Amino acid sequence: MSTALQVTDLHKTFTRGDQRVDVLRGVTFSLNQGQSLALTGPSGSGKSTLLHLLGTLDTPSAGAVAIDGHNPFALAAAELAHFRNRHIGFVFQNHHLLPQYSVLENVLVPTLAFPTAGTDHRARALDILKTIGLADRIDHRPAELSGGECQRVAVARALINRPRLLLCDEPTGSLDQTTAATVVDLLFQLHRSEQTVLITATHDLELANHFEQHFALREGTCVAP
Questions:
Q1: Domains along the sequence of the chain with CATH
Q2: Of 62, 73, 2, which is closest to residue 27 (Cα–Cα)?
Q3: pTM for this predicted structure
């Protein structure tokens, strides 16, 4: 099985005036297609920073990230935006749905940035929404949905472009226990069917136990929990 994600000696340092904060100090790991990883650690340990680097939303201070053998940070800004749109999906703690758009329209938003001729995105969106049990809610606005339903729509949106890498930052943090369990079950169902590389940052150790691999971020690097 080929390596889908390779992270090598990744560092991230923030500076403000004379202050220097080393958040990540040499993170190294690799994941194959279809594998999953949970990242845990206290607030401020660097979980979100690491996700932002993997998602190419920020650039590392040192080290390398390779997605399917490609170094996204070698791309020009426009090419990087295209790469991110096609290869990386994001699910955050808050669903960030656009309130003025319907469920179906929200799921289709990522397809609008770089239209692909001959691709029936609407059919795929409808298929995912059926899988997650929202086929009868496609014309509803986010305000008409529960928190768990909104988060399911966010998962569908993240998967619409068939990304290689699915990154989730506290995806159940704003949900009650029962609703969170439902969202987790659907997340893993879609992860398995789509064969994504799934990486989730969470404080929830019970959620982390669902993943094939589990690292804790301590002193800027990944260690066994």
A1: 3-216 (3.40.50.300)
A2: 62
A3: 0.93
